[in-house]
Specification:
The chain has three domains: 6-124, Rossmann fold; 141-277, Arc Repressor Mutant, subunit A (Orthogonal Bundle), CATH 1.10.10; 304-382, no CATH class. With 385 residues, the protein is of the alpha/beta class. The strands form two sheets. It has an eight-stranded mixed beta sheet, sandwiched between helices. It has a five-stranded parallel beta sheet with strand order 2-3-4-1-5, with helices on both faces. It is 41% helix and 17% strand. The longest helix is centred in the middle third of the chain and has 21 residues, at 160-180.
Length: 385
């Protein structure tokens, strides 16, 4: 079994809070993690129709069975239960009574805000990190981009293309209908694939609306749905402008690069050799890897990008309060002086000396002016954001 980095933070939170919510995409390993850490607690899956019916019809009686607490999996399926949980948590002084998991961030947060605010700690659990897979990762970058990081693909010898096809079908047919009641699933799936073709680009909702054949409000609603179910991630532009006009649209990425590759119709790793979006997929991998590092430590998102109207840009800004650390992402394996142009410009603009170049090579370098060159496979060792 692959040890999850989030387990350490989960154990810390269990000593402080009466309940913990672990949220993340389907198949990201939430159930495996909580059953491993809280092995002494009863496990209840609210995906089970009979159990869910009991919880819906008699929430008091359902919770009475678990006086010492329990793991309640996919709890957003039974929103009525939150009010009863509030009373139980308030009457009991023990920590880590209930462990709640969910694959829909919007529904879970909505119910927690209404009933359990201040009583619950959060952890966002995304698929495996590069660090967690050290020793188990595919050998080539093409294979990594094609396979992605979902845990089931590392547990069993699934045919990758078919696994993602089933994942997409299950997500669209079950989750999308449950959340938004979208009737035309064919149009929605087309929208999903068009989002994949825009990885690393500024999110132009007008353009998407025209291509999909719906209005802007629908596009915004659907993107919100993809965010809530941990399919896509919007990277926001940094607000500090240094007296120059900056771009204000976010960029679009996917929480798993393998899913994005599948939506692009990539059939095998070799196809990536000449694929025009290989660089964008690599950028996606690095951005989400740094986001995972934050989430696994119980921290909030601190990632931004920066671009001004003169065409100067940085792939990432790590915002740690007063400190802004620039990051450039390069898919090449040979370090050239062009890799440092964006960092040098930013350091001159902000009067700082720092930054990282993350690239597809294997050699770590500590350059002058505080700039480090980091292989993407060693992000977890050298970049602490």
């Amino acid at each position: 079994m692959i040890n999850r980095e989030a387990a350490t933070e989960l154990k810390k939170l269990a000593k402080q809070y009466k309940a913990i919510a672990i949220v993340g995409p389907r198949q990201s390993g939430k159930t495996t993690l909580v059953r491993q850490v809280f092995y002494d607690k009863p496990y209840v899956s609210l995906e089970n129709p009979d159990i869910r019916a009991f919880a819906l019809e008699d929430p008091k009686g359902f919770l009475r069975q678990y006086s010492g607490g329990a793991i309640l999996d996919e709890i957003q399926r039974v929103p009525q239960i939150f009010s009863y949980l509030q009373q139980i948590l308030d009457e009991n002084t023990e920590t880590s009574q209930f462990i709640l998991t969910g694959s829909n961030n919007f529904l879970l947060q909505q119910n927690i805000t209404q009933s359990l605010a201040g009583r619950v700690a959060y952890i966002n659990l995304l698929p495996f990190t590069v660090g967690e897979l050290e020793g188990s990762m595919p050998k080539t970058l093409n294979e990594i981009l094609y396979k992605g990081f979902y845990p089931p693909l590392y547990d069993r010898p699934f045919e990758i293309k078919k696994w993602f096809s089933n994942y997409i079908r299950t997500y669209v047919e079950r989750d999308v209908r449950q959340l938004k009641g979208i009737e035309n699933l064919v149009v929605f799936e087309r929208f999903l694939r068009l989002c994949a073709s825009r990885i690393g680009q500024l999110l132009n909702k007008n353009s998407l609306a025209v291509e999909v054949g719906v209005d802007n409000k629908t596009i915004e609603s659907w993107i919100g749905l993809l965010e809530a179910s941990f399919i896509v991630y919007r990277l926001k532009p940094h607000h500090r402008n240094f007296n120059k006009r900056i771009v204000k649209m976010p960029k679009l990425y996917f929480y798993d690069v393998g899913l994005a590759a599948a939506l692009l119709g990539i059939q095998n790793p070799e196809q990536l050799d000449l694929h025009p979006l290989k660089g964008s997929l690599f950028e996606n991998l690095v951005v989400i890897e740094l986001l995972k590092n934050r989430y696994n430590s119980g921290k909030t998102d601190n990632l931004y990008f920066w671009r001004n109207n003169a065409g100067n840009e940085l792939d990432l800004i790590l915002d740690n309060g007063p400190t802004l650390t620039p990051v450039e992402i390069k898919i090449g394996q040979t370090i050239t002086k062009d890799y440092f142009k964006g960092l040098i410009y930013w350091n001159g603009l902000s009067n700082t000396n720092a930054g990282y170049v993350v690239y597809a090579g294997e050699e770590y370098q500590n350059r002058s002016k505080g700039i480090e060159v980091v292989p993407y496979t060693k992000i977890h060792r050298y970049i602490k954001n």
